[in-house]
Specification:
Elements (H helix, E strand, L loop, with lengths): L4 E4 L4 E6 L12 E4 L17 E3 L1 H6 L10 E4 L8 E3 L7 E2 L3 E6 L6 H9 L1 H9 L18 E4 L2 H42 L6 E4 L5 E3 L12 E8 L2 H4 L5 E2 L4 E3 L1 H4 L12 E5 L3 E7 L4 E2 L3 E5 L6 H10 L1 H6 L11 H5 L2 E4 L2 H41 L7
Parallel strand pairs: 3-7, 12-17, 13-16
Antiparallel strand pairs: 1-9, 2-8, 3-4, 5-6, 5-8, 10-19, 11-18, 12-14, 15-16, 15-18
Helix pairs in contact: 2-4, 4-7, 4-10
Length: 394
């Protein structure tokens, strides 16, 4: 890391919030309990996903201590081992086991620089290499002495920290705008088609308003099928997606591989829904692609917009889940999916609704494009700044 000194993580903190090794008693409602699935290097702050809750009494008496605004959360175990987020202000959650909140000693190191450093590729690699589990990724708090961080002079620390947080704040703002826009669209949907639904509207099924396709996986033992230029997606691409538009896929196939997929190449703007483990994750494809067997691809060749279908599925996700079954994992078949019942509004109302919500979805897509650009810029700059390849102008 250039000519910079190094400092162990253990020397940079003045206090560590640590409830690891103990599972808090949970409730159906109460104060959110943030688990490792809520912490990601893609987000500035924890996300509220698959939450559990604790009571006020548990909050007051069970935990050793609680995070404070500005602390840095670091996960220690599981697939998200090494993920880092900031604690927001105000703090409306508690943290579960398998993570800690680091209270930075600002007399030793700049807080935002430490946050950026912990996310840098070199330090992330160190964290993975300190894994002691052999089965489940696991970083021991006692190994913080061994986790060595770059330690330039204070002005350089502050400049790097400000560059990283400025880009991260812009990304976070766009994410929050998108969350607000999607909530607005969902609220309008419920108002138009649930609260103000008319008895005289036609009763039908999804099969009356859309068509669906399923996918397959070309043989993974045939190298001629893989590493081509055609996008091929499994639900992993959208369960890890930080948005509702899919711009890229983890894997690509060749023309020969595509020939083995019965559904062929699906057009841009196809609505994708995961049909197994988990059921009901949704995304709009912004690229032509092929899909595997874990999807139901929804096509709008019967005149109803995919934005309407997306919002109907979001609003009725419990119904979708109720039609799923399976002994190994839950799955909904295409035939069962098509039988889901709904009221079909008149075309005029559907068209009027589309005029209202389409600009919201267009803005979400535009924001997500900016997020991708800013994230690439931030994540490209960080290792160059940390290595000294790019010099910070003080």
């Amino acid at each position: 890391m250039s000519e910079w000194k190094e400092i162990p993580l253990s020397k940079t903190t003045k206090f560590i919030v640590d409830n690891r090794g103990k599972t808090a008693p949970t409730e159906l409602t109460g104060i959110p309990l943030i688990a490792t699935n809520c912490i990601s290097n893609n987000n500035l702050y924890p996300i509220y996903e698959n939450l559990r809750y604790v009571s006020s009494d548990t909050y007051e008496t069970w935990f050793r201590s609680h995070p404070q605004p500005g602390d840095i959360i670091l996960t220690l175990k599981g697939s998200q081992n090494g993920a880092v987020c900031l604690v927001p202000n105000p703090v409306d959650f508690v943290i579960a086991q398998d993570m800690v909140a680091l209270r930075v000693d600002e007399n030793v190191i700049d807080r935002l620089f430490l946050f950026a450093t912990l996310r840098s590729p070199e330090v992330q690699a160190q964290i993975k290499n300190l894994d002691v589990s052999g089965v489940i990724p696991h970083l021991k708090k006692s190994d913080f002495d061994k986790l060595l961080l770059p330690y330039p002079d204070r002005k350089v620390q502050e400049s790097i920290g400000q560059i990283y947080i400025s880009l991260s704040n812009k990304i976070d703002l766009l994410h929050r705008q998108n969350a607000t826009l999607e909530k607005m669209a969902e609220t309008l949907f419920r108002q138009w088609f649930v609260e103000e639904a008319k008895e005289e509207w036609e009763n039908g099924t999804l099969d009356d308003i859309l068509s669906v396709k399923g996918g397959t996986t070309p043989s993974t033992s045939e190298p001629d099928y893989w590493n081509g230029t055609i996008h091929w997606t499994s639900p992993r691409d959208i369960t890890n997606l930080n948005g509702i538009y899919l711009f890229d896929t983890e894997r690509k196939i060749t023309e020969l591989g595509l020939s083995k997929i019965s559904s062929g190449l699906l057009p841009k703007a196809t609505l994708l829904m995961s049909s197994r483990a988990p059921v009901g994750v949704l995304a709009f494809a912004e690229i032509p692609l092929a899909i595997n067997q874990g999807y139901i691809a929804i096509l709008d060749n019967k005149g109803v917009s995919k934005e309407f279908i997306y919002l109907w599925l979001k609003t009725n996700i419990d119904v979708v889940h109720s039609f799923s079954n399976g002994s190994t994992f839950m799955e909904i078949s295409k035939s069962a999916f098509k039988t889901l019942q709904l009221q079909i509004p008149p075309k005029k109302i559907l068209d009027d609704f589309q005029i209202v919500v389409k600009p919201m979805f267009d803005k979400i897509k535009s924001n997500q494009t900016q997020i991708r650009t800013l994230t690439t810029l931030r994540d490209t700059l960080l290792p160059k700044l940390m290595s000294g390849e790019l010099r910070v102008k003080i």
